[in-house]
Amino acid sequence: MNCLLDTVLQVAHNTKRQDHETTQAGQLQQQVRSLRNTLVQVGAVNPHVEIDFYGAEGVGVLLANNLDVSIQAIEADANGRLTVHPVLGEGRLVHILHTPGHFQPLWPRH
After folding, report:
1. Could you state, in order of their start, the residue ranges of all structural domains in the chain?
2. 72 near 94, Cβ under 8 Å?
3. What's the pTM value of the predicted model, to 2 decimals?
């Protein structure tokens, strides 16, 4: 239920999650829990359901503005069709991938 927050924090801090347990991964998990609790406290999300990045509550904009990034989600549906969503926020541009039931970072190629 927190993959969106995990993804946004990774791209906002330009920190890739490793495939194995690291101190950085533990810190990221703490940040995710803290961010989720804050969003619950301000009434932006329900503590027991997935977060609606695109919804009327403005969670995507709230995340982008508070993390000083612009977020563009690319959504791939179950049939592989892509939807490129509008950019939210006004900071450094980052991209995330939304597949059915999951978010993950899209890292630039160097």
Report:
1. 3-106
2. yes
3. 0.89
